[in-house]
Amino acid sequence: MSQSIDIAVVGASGAVGGALVELLEERQFPVGKLHLLASEASAGQSVPFKGRNLRVGSIAGFDFAQVGLAFFAAGEAVTRQYASAAQAAGCSVIDLSGGLPLDQAPRVVAEVNPQVLKTMQPPYLFASPTSAATALAVVLAPLRPLLDWQRLSITACLPVSSQGREGVAELARQTAELLNARPLEPRFFDRQVAFNLLGLVGAVGTDGHAQVERRLIEDLRQVLDAPVLKVAATCVLVPVFFGDSLSVSVQAAKPIDLHAVQAALEGAASVEVLEKDEYPTVITDAIGQDLVFVGRARNGVDDPTELNLWIVSDNVRKGAAHNAVQLAELLIKHRP
Amino acid sequence: MSQSIDIAVVGASGAVGGALVELLEERQFPVGKLHLLASEASAGQSVPFKGRNLRVGSIAGFDFAQVGLAFFAAGEAVTRQYASAAQAAGCSVIDLSGGLPLDQAPRVVAEVNPQVLKTMQPPYLFASPTSAATALAVVLAPLRPLLDWQRLSITACLPVSSQGREGVAELARQTAELLNARPLEPRFFDRQVAFNLLGLVGAVGTDGHAQVERRLIEDLRQVLDAPVLKVAATCVLVPVFFGDSLSVSVQAAKPIDLHAVQAALEGAASVEVLEKDEYPTVITDAIGQDLVFVGRARNGVDDPTELNLWIVSDNVRKGAAHNAVQLAELLIKHRP
Fold it and tell me: Which Pfam families match (chains A, B) (predicted)?
């Protein structure tokens, strides 16, 4: 075991923060002292780690010089407020909030573009992409040598947990109200999400694109090192608690050999590929797993240059926490 | 009121059959005698029509020479068994099951390609497309003059009612079991559909495409009179009871003028268009309506030749029954 490192987990009371702490223990990450932090409002809770319950403290006034590495898994605003100061204090930062621009915090997926880390100097500051971009990159990167892709068209069906624990509670509450035939008053979301699909997630720009869509596209382009790849993305909020479900259509310049695609996916790290007439689901496959599942790899109905895929992944675990911990493992491996 | 016509509704005990009967009354269709029919197993139920409860009889042995028009809204097998014989008996047939090939039963959407009817001779035999194709055609046809489309990429999120009343009952049952923390044994679907997305709907071909996907593409091409248009389609079963939700990306040869798109949709029949930062949902907009709702009309993030749309429509009412009754209205208008 390598020398241990003191760590801060910001947003430890959230779903992703909890999964981070779990994975640090599970993967026997060489954690020295573990500081669990959250905003003032969320501090005070307890999170289990190695048989003890650790109290979540307030980030306000925390001295990041005490730790060698900090995961930021709270909101974007928290990252924007504290991440640069943490780095300035000598602490490497892995952001999971998407709160920093790509040039300030490059997006890295452990299986796809770990070489980015070698171009940086400690203390590091970089980010794990949005969960859907991480899952997509894990599946698409191994296909890059096979297909001269020209355009991706993505419909990302995001679970309510993408909006935090309040999203999860609200879907449960709405569903129970409806099943008991009680009148429904949406609270956390602006309308009914139970037994319904919301075709717009979060804030929307003047060009009509949601911020999550723009991020998905930008993160994916950076991780795949494909800055001008055309990507159409629509993010939809679905009445699912956990797990991203992604419908992807790739358009290539040349016919795509499905056998080669299947073989490349079978050999890819962190990918579990099903046959073309099989499909994974978040409930039966992805939840709690550190793999991205892909099925239904098929050409277009009469277009061999088209490749369609159905991808599912645990948005909290694989799409966020697992990637971040893998990145941390890479960091300590390359420590001076 | 024009001269009345005797009518048979096959599949009258199903959701679409019920909606057909409702619309015939609501739109004051000149119905003479109304025969409600179903397979032996579903016969015997009652369906209300103009203040009376009509008994659903068995299709076996029914003499279609008694009626001038028959709607086939039962399964494909029923259509394949009886539709040709009905036509041979002098009865015009409007199929809603998709059970007949396109050359035998051309797909017609009232707002889009009604001219097809003029090329035919009575007794007619034609079909209303799959509900998603109907909704897509209603929205896309008015855009045809504006954009030189090259490719459509569609993710169609289909409700459990697309699989009939048993699909509706199964989602309700599964949801109640899960909310009550009882162990779930999927029955009607092969796995959990509550709080989950099934990335493959119904039967799948050796090429990996589901039959519903192939139909969606073929129906859409025929209705839009675009036989070689490239269409990528993925159909997903979602935990929603009623209403299709469609994520569409159009790729055109030239930049697409969003103002012209918005204006064309505002002037289109049976379309309700929202602003580009607004989105309709099946629950809040589409259910029970005879309109197709579209929102989020936006270009690509940095590609003016791309147009993205979010479309919702009542799969039972607008996508099936309403179109079929509109087609019937066209037929009697052109009666000799």
Answer: Semialdhyde_dh, Semialdhyde_dhC
Q: Which residues pair with A53 in a beta bridge?
A: A48
Look at residues B4, B10, B6, B7 and name the one whose alpha carbon lies nearest to residue B83. B10
ipTM of the shown complex = 0.96
> Could you tell me if B47 and B179 lie in one domain?
no
Q: Residue B4 has what DSSP assignment?
A: P
Do B168 and B37 belong to one domain? no
Question: How many distinct structural domains can be found in chain B?
Answer: 2
> What residues form DSSP beta bridges with B313?
B244
Helix (H, G, I), strand (E, B) or coil at A243: coil
* Domain shared by A116 and A160, yes or no: no
Q: Given 3-state DSSP classes, what are the helix, strand and coil percentages for chain A, each rounded to the nearest 5?
A: 35, 25, 40
Interface of A with B in 241-300 (CB under 8 A): 241, 245, 247, 249, 251, 276-284, 295-300
Q: How far, in Å, are A133, A266, B150, B251, B334 from residue A273 at the CA level?
A: 18, 6, 31, 29, 55
Instruction: Mark whether B91 and B190 lie in a shared domain.
Output: no
Whole domain around residue A326: which residue ranges?
Answer: 5-129+320-333
Q: A68 and A44 share a domain? A: yes
Inspect the interface and report whether the beta carbons of A200 and B303 lie closer than 8 Å.
Answer: no
Is B312–A199 a contact, with Cβ atoms under 8 angstroms apart? yes
Q: What are the pLDDT tens digits along chain A (336 aa)?
A: 458 999 999 999 999 999 999 999 999 999 999 999 998 888 899 999 999 999 999 999 899 999 999 999 999 999 999 999 999 999 999 999 999 999 999 999 999 999 999 999 999 999 999 999 999 999 999 999 999 999 999 999 999 999 999 999 999 999 999 998 898 888 899 899 999 999 999 999 999 999 999 999 999 999 999 999 999 999 999 999 999 999 999 999 999 999 999 999 999 999 999 988 899 999 999 999 999 999 999 999 999 999 999 999 999 999 999 999 999 999 998 765
Are the beta carbons of A208 and B297 separated by less than 8 Å? yes
Q: How many CA atoms lie within 13 A of A191 on its CB side?
A: 17
Contacts of B42 (CB under 8 A, 6+ apart): B11, B13, B14, B56, B74
